[in-house]
Design a protein that fits this description.
By secondary structure, the protein is of the alpha/beta class. It has 16 helices and 13 strands. The strands form two sheets. The chain has a seven-stranded parallel beta sheet, sandwiched between helices. It has a six-stranded parallel beta sheet with strand order 10-9-8-11-12-13. The two termini are 17 Å apart. It binds uridine-diphosphate-N-acetylglucosamine. The site of uridine-diphosphate-N-acetylglucosamine has 18 residues, from helix 1, helix 5 and helix 11.
């Protein structure tokens, strides 16, 4: 049996890692890892492969950056010959980036069944590129592996047959739990010369937040006010760095812009923060498990369990609201919560159990 796994952008790597660990531990199954090259800087890609012990990809498609159409088309064009050459029994895609939808589409058109890990999440905001990627990928996938109950409800509401929906939990949390001790050993706090619980962490990279100078400048003003109470460390995504550099006169006192960090360093930084302010999807989930208060600078979230059961609060992009919530959260301190169901380090195992069982049965049915 042969599975082809696809990863392309930074948030994919921590989702693909536990699937590769699990597959390496099983007998009777081969896998091929394909990196589309959507992310390519060492700090955005290679470092994650090293730290998370993800095997060297058998193929790197080297697509790089581009408009949505160019990037998506280029992934499809370069992935197709790989699928034709290897003819896997199934292609596994994760998350909601352009590589996810492009590779799912390529495989399904070649008659190869597709498994989508992290299926069913919906922000119901179709101006968000990831929402389009989620809706399209789910519509064409054969297995929908879901991380939280809202995902099951969303897929049922869209009429997906129950047999395709598998509530398995969160593979990214598998990685967080597996790497927790190693991450704690990172000396990133000493390197940055900060004490535990003495700072807040910010990440921003969504086009809606960083591409429009007026919006970005309002967000930075609000962050500067919060930083007066608790200095901010801001590992800057390449897209955001370009946008910040174009802004003139932004007040960045008490906000330290640093290069993107590796996984182990970043998780240590987050685990010891007083507060996280972010527009990332994954960080809403990681802070939920780490018990760190998280303010999400977006109007919606496709991960509502992090608000209902976790430490996340949706605050939108209005600077006054961000300041208000930020100052209140700093005063309130940490919140410990029960992890959401199946965020227990076993999600990848559940995914692989289902896939191996179904692919084997499918094969025996076909040969009968
Ligand atoms: C992509 C994903 C987004 C995810 C994010 C995490 C899509 C539609 N978006 O957004 O869902 O949350 O990754 O980072 O797939 N760049 C570099 N080096 C790199 C990669 C990118 O400098 O290694 C710069 C380039 O200028 C590029 C820009 O970042 O144009 C944006 O990269 P892109 O892959 O288009 O989207 P992200 O914003 O990273």
């Amino acid at each position: 049996m042969h599975l082809m796994l696809v990863a392309g952008a930074r948030p994919n790597f921590m989702k693909i890692a536990p699937l590769t660990w699990e597959l390496k531990a099983r007998s009777g199954v081969d896998f091929t890892l394909v990196h589309t090259g959507q992310h390519y800087d060492r700090q955005m890609s290679e470092l994650f492969f090293e730290q998370l012990e993800i095997p060297e990809p058998a193929y790197n498609l080297g697509v790089g950056s581009g408009t949505h159409a160019v990037q998506t088309a280029e992934i499809i064009r370069r992935f197709e010959p790989v699928v034709i050459e290897r003819r896997p029994d199934a292609v596994v895609v994760v998350g909601d980036v352009n590589s996810t939808v492009a590779c799912a589409l390529t495989a399904v058109k070649l008659g190869i069944p597709v498994a989508h890990v992290e299926a069913g999440l919906r922000s119901f905001d179709r101006s968000m590129p990831e929402e389009i990627n989620r809706v399209v990928t789910d519509a064409i996938s054969d297995w929908l592996f879901v991380s939280e109950p809202s995902g099951v409800a969303n897929l049922e509401n869209e009429g997906v047959p129950a047999g395709r929906i598998h509530f398995v939990g969160n593979v990214m949390i598998d990685t967080l739990l597996a790497m927790r001790d190693l991450s704690e050993r990172s000396d990133v706090l000493q390197q940055l010369a900060v004490d535990s619980q003495s700072y807040s962490v910010v990440t921003l990279h969504r086009p809606t937040n960083v591409d429009e100078p007026a919006v970005l400048s309002g967000l930075l003003q609000a962050l500067a006010r919060v930083a007066q109470e608790s200095p901010i460390i801001f590992p800057v995504h390449p897209r955001t760095r370009a946008a910040v550099q174009k802004l003139s006169g932004a007040d960045l006192s008490n906000i330290r812009l640093i290069e993107p960090l590796g996984y182990l360093e970043f998780m240590k930084l987050v685990a010891h923060a007083r507060l996280v302010l972010t527009d990332s999807g994954g960080l809403q989930e990681e802070t939920t498990i780490l018990g760190i208060p998280c303010l999400t600078l977006r109007k919606n979230t496709e991960r509502p369990v992090t608000v209902a059961e976790g430490t996340n609060t949706l605050v939108g992009m209005d600077p006054a609201q961000i300041v208000d919530h930020g100052l209140r959260a700093l005063r309130a301190g940490n919140r410990r919560n029960q992890p959401p169901r199946f965020w227990d380090g076993q999600a990848a195992k559940r995914v692989i159990d289902v896939l191996l069982n179904d692919v084997t049965r499918g094969r025996s049915a076909a040969s009968a």
